[in-house]
Amino acid sequence: MVGRIFSTMLRLVISIIVVAITITILSLLPGFEINDAAALIIGIILLSLLNAHLYPLLIRLTLPLTVLSFGLISFILNGLMILLVAAVMPGWQVDGLLTAILISIVFTFLFGSVVPGIMGRRDDELYRYEIVKRYANKAKKESAKNYERPGLMILEIDGLSGPALHQAVGQGYMPFIKSWLRSGEYKLLVWDSGLPSQTSAMQAGILHGSHFNIPAFRFYNKREGVLLVSNRPKDAALMLSHLDDGKGILAENGFSLNNWAHGNASEILLTFTGFSTEVGSLKGMRSSDTLFQFFAVAANMQRVIISAIRDLVTEYREARAQVRRDIEPRIRRHFPYPLIRTGTVAVLPYLSIYLLIGKMWEGISVAYTTFVSYDEVAHHSGVERSDAFKILTQFDEQVRLMVEASKQAPRKYEFVLLSDHGQSQGATFRQRYGMTLGELIDKSITDPSHAIQIVMGENASGNLNLLASQFAQSSRWAAKRVKALIKTHENKDYIELKLLSDGESSREEQVKKADTVVCASGNLALVYFKVSKERMTLEEIDAAFPNLVNLLSQHPGIGFVLVRSKDDGLIAVGSKGVYYLDSDTVDGENPLTHYGENAAMHLRELDTYPDVGDLVLISMYDPEWDEVAAFEELVGSHGGLGGDQNHPFIMFPKSFDPDNEIKDLIGAPAIYKLLKKWTEGR
């Protein structure tokens, strides 16, 4: 306690000294002048009061614009407050808004970077203290309650495989997680994700117990003639609606934050299946006020801005380094990816930690949140490269911050860490063979009038669109300004930022006109032929498109083609053999050999989904180099079979499994059963 008080006082003294020196130096510049020391001190006090009382009001009015600009609007707000100080303080002279904004930028840099550096440590302890102080009154109310059991915080790190986690821990990127494992108090298991190894399906399975009929991130409903996309709230709600029985793992006083599936949580925020008006902004309507609590604190905006600038510089440096060193495989990391990356690295993690600590102070029973930054960076940088592993260091620090904060909460909390899938690396299909999968199919179909449309391109822009949509609810005035930057979808409450657009809407129009639709999800692709509204058999496909299946199966970039035959049932056709899944027999070489011991089981399940493609294609997998050939332009990918994309992890206290009975976890529903047991009292 004494140490914390001393540390706070020391930081205050250093901050005042830095402010005084900085303003004195800035006053030497043209356009900014302070006449005497008294004016300097009084002006600093007045500026502090404005930051405490006027700044939150300005943020309330401009919240969506502030966040969507990654905090840059706050420079203007701070500049206006500096002008206000200059207007009422006789000793201050500021020559216009641009000068005031420059002063604001300098102050942000100092207090977000220089002062913590002078203190000789990161600003995490102060950050935790600020959060604790803000939620102290709630903690006092909750401390009077007697809780039967500890609360549970479930933290998902999207896209991190068990093997990649082991490597990151071994190389020193995750010291706090390493301390957990070395203490012997935590158990780490790798599990089999099955198909499709992507977030919407996996989270449906983890939080609701089933991912039936979610065959890929994007898929086509032939009966209705519509394309369904996982990161559009209306589509997401529809996908989950037939799986939701009200028994999700968050049904008992739970909180869903930054997820795909809501888990029947009583409070839902930044969750795709919880935003649509059908499922309801519902429980999340007051979420805009919750978000405001974070961004109304000037210090939080400073952290976001400094982190955003730092990450943009990091992205530029790392992308250039890969080109300079000729690191392969690699992809072009062009706009808007740097902005999407910055949003997932600089905005969402700080926001998540702030809100989760607040929920612990409220005594929430269970919370589930997803950290998407590693998945996004690994897609573009590579799965086990330093750029991606540095994101894990950030996650490690955030876990430590939460655990330390939980010790002061009114209720004891236990922690479970997990991933929903991993990633597999490799040069893309287009890089290897000079054409996309859609172009290969187009080339293989001899009819020149036959139109083919491939849809692909998963990224975290959906998370930022959802964030923008949630913010737009906070202020009608700001929402009107935001909508000048966006395009709306069928759900008018959901907005898509034009700045981050990947052309989804224009592709949908092309899908409607196309004769064949190809939906790519990592190294899995679903092919739909519109000549029939029902799923076509091999015999029907051969009659309509002679030799197509044979040409595809013989291509070196395709590991096998899954198709249902009228005569032979479900079959996997490879270049050197056919596996008959219904009879479990092989003619020639088994094309599933290198795709995992449970590959056949996962393919049989996928075959039962009504919206699975007429053809299911899985790319080649090279076990020697541990590489796949993604049908999307991503160096790290997931969605199909092959490599570590199917090997996520779960890490939990050993006290949850004292007899070591938990093993051989296959499929997301197996994780659901564990979490359901743990949330209901073990």
Which key features would you list for this structure?
seven-stranded mixed sheet, 47% helix, 682 residues, alpha+beta
Structural class: alpha+beta
Helix proportion: 40-55%
Which spans have pLDDT < 50 for at least 5 consecutive residues?
Answer: 277-286, 487-491
Taken as a percent bin, the fraction of beta residues is: 15-25%
Strand order of the largest sheet: 12-15-16-21-17-18-19-20
- Label the overall shape: globular
Distance between the termini: 36 Å
The major beta sheet can be summarized as: 8 strands, mixed
Summarize the topology:
Blueprint: H1 2-26, E1 32-34, H2 37-68, H3 72-88, E2 92-94, H4 97-119, H5 124-134, H6 136-143, E3 151-157, H7 162-170, H8 175-183, E4 186-190, H9 199-208, E5 218-221, E6 226-229, H10 233-241, E7 254-257, E8 267-269, H11 287-295, H12 298-324, H13 337-361, E9 366-371, H14 373-381, H15 386-406, E10 413-418, E11 424-425, H16 429-433, H17 437-444, E12 452-455, H18 461-472, H19 476-482, E13 486-488, E14 495-497, H20 504-513, E15 516-521, E16 524-529, H21 538-544, H22 548-554, E17 558-565, E18 569-573, E19 577-580, E20 585-588, H23 599-607, E21 615-619, E22 621-622, E23 627-628, E24 636-637, E25 649-653, H24 668-679
Please sum up the structure shown:
The chain is of the alpha+beta class and 682 residues long.
Task: Please provide a written account of the structure.
Helices cover 47% and strands 16% of the residues. The protein has 682 residues and is α+β, with helices and mostly antiparallel strands. It contains 24 helices and 25 strands. The strands form 7 sheets. The chain has an 8-stranded mixed beta sheet with strand order 12-15-16-21-17-18-19-20, with helices on both faces. It has a 7-stranded mixed beta sheet with strand order 4-25-10-3-9-7-8, sandwiched between helices. It folds into 3 domains: 2-120, no CATH class; 130-195 and 202-209 and 249-421 and 667-679; 211-247 and 427-459 and 502-634, no CATH class. Mean pLDDT is 83; it is low at 277-286 and 487-491. The radius of gyration is 27 Å and the shape is globular.
